[in-house]
Amino acid sequence: xxxxxxxxxxxxxxxxxxxxxxxxxxxxxxxxxxxxxxxxxxxxxxxxxxxxxxxxxxxxxxxxxxxxxxxxxxxxxxxxxxxxxxxxxxxxxxxxxxxxxxxxxxxxxxxxxxxxxxxxxxxxxxxxxxxxxxxxxxxxxxxxxxxxxxxxxxxxxxxxxxxxxxxxxxxxxxxxxxxxxxxxxxxxxxxxxxxxxxxxxxxxxxxxxxxxxxxxxxxxxxxxxxxxxxxxxxxxxxxxxxxxxxxxxxxxxxxxxxxxxxxxxxxxxxxxxxxxxxxxxxxxxxxxxxxxxxxxxxxxxxxxxxxxxxxxxxxxxxxxxxxxxxxxxxxxxxxxxxxxxxxxxxxxxxxxxxxxxxxxxxxxxxxxxxxxxxxxxxxxxxxxxxxxxxxxxxxxxxxxxxxxxxxxxxxxxxxxxxxxxxxxxxxxxxxxxxxxxxxxxxxxxxxxxxxxxxxxxxxxxxxxxxxxxxxxxxxxxxxxxxxxxxxxxxxxxxxxxxxxxxxxxxxxxxxxxxxxxxxxxxxxxxxxxxxxxxxxxxxxxxxxxxxxxxxxxxxxxxxxxxxxxxxxxxxxxxxxxxxxxxxxxxxxxxxxxxxxxxxxxxxxxxxxxxxxxxxxxxxxxxxxxxxxxxxxxxxxxxxxxxxxxxxxxxxxxxxxxxxxxxxx
Length: 664
Fold this sequence. Notes:
With 664 residues, the protein is an alpha/beta fold. It is 40% helix and 15% strand.
């Protein structure tokens, strides 16, 4: 107060500068490398307020907080990490205009009468879902799933990866030729890396469909480009342009994916997509390849791309995601809010590692919260128009089919299709349910195909006409030979069980529809003895269809099922079957589940055997009221598949080991 006025003013300015500089240092400290930060890191509130004229106008301050920030060195790249500064660069776009969501109908929409404003459902159960360990399916099983997906109304079926194997190529081609030519067909898609060989092989597989699609991809994250591709950004851009052009010359519908998009630099991502669109891509896919993102971050990524990608207003924005952090479905919903209009999903959420976004959860979220999402699609909030093309009543049946064919059981508390999804045990909940179901259920079980008529449907006095009519009601289509075989199984079950339910029928049909070409060995007889103070013993009779031989053998084990497995091993000359001794086969999984309730319920058994040499896992399944019989049949089914793939393994029934055997 005793200094001259000009000295007091100078001191005040200096004090203000020191405070602002300290605030800037605090803000800069927040710019340390952060895992997965895809959004701009906000400056500290203190730094913001101090640089906003609360202390001093920027014109009077030589170094404001923002100018200090501009002196920072460019962001450094770290393995699997991105710095906050690089996030800021990616989010910078000034006043870039948000381009509109593409609502123009495609050729497929016009031909099938589908709403072009809907969310398109791209099902990858047969490709990404099948990649889950132990979930591999044969060509015939893939066809079953494809037919059900078409019945359910999915828009795109990614039928497989044609270049991966000859069997995968055949499966994709068969699905394209059959399901792809239905009256109201889905688009049939094949996956291809961004290489000429992959793309041409894929085009050959899908060309028989009315609406074929090639889905090609290349990685765009720095960590993938550096360590996996070993290519520069310029090389990736060039490959993208060349390969999308090649795919476009072979089919009209091309989808391009930027693998690991959510860990990619957003500016580069927009550049890659711009190149792909110019080269002819009709759909651009933004994959969260490692389940890394969050719902808000996914939404912001889509919005950023809508601002900075050239031509994005003329293509469909698709999203793909995994559930490594348990947020795949939530991430998809966030992306939809940002403008995505295609979701790549799998039935039951099966897939690599923790799985993919579950089709049934995404679809039902859009259905139940329709009034929330409608305005985002330019619709009145109270509009009843469906947001997807999915036939909701087919959801439960699709889930059951995929579970049966892959052996990947659904956890009881899983949303929508879990056994407990519509179960109530709490007294308070039960009281509310009795008064009004809406008190504790936001979804009616019948919406997804769980009808109240799922009780007594057929019995031992039911005839072939009633049986076929019930199959038709369930949407199950069989040829005459398949129907006859299933009817025999039905009559056999009806003699053992009073009540035959829809679930029983589905299990019978799925069991009969297994790949018959692989069934070299067939179980003819199983008998076991076990109990307290008894040695579990099993007697098994197998028929070798190849050598036209039927033999019987007996063995002991730790229990009746193990004894039956050991008897099968002895008959086939197989070494292994257990975890410890696995020279030829290794038992990886054995599970039993009840198809329906009650003491006479069908028991469904799933067995997974691993080939110790190749590491491949083979699935076997069977259903019977006797779980020991079902176990033995499932084990032999898995063994048949393993033998089919092992040219060096040529087991045969050994008469010298049999208790009683005869050549037929």
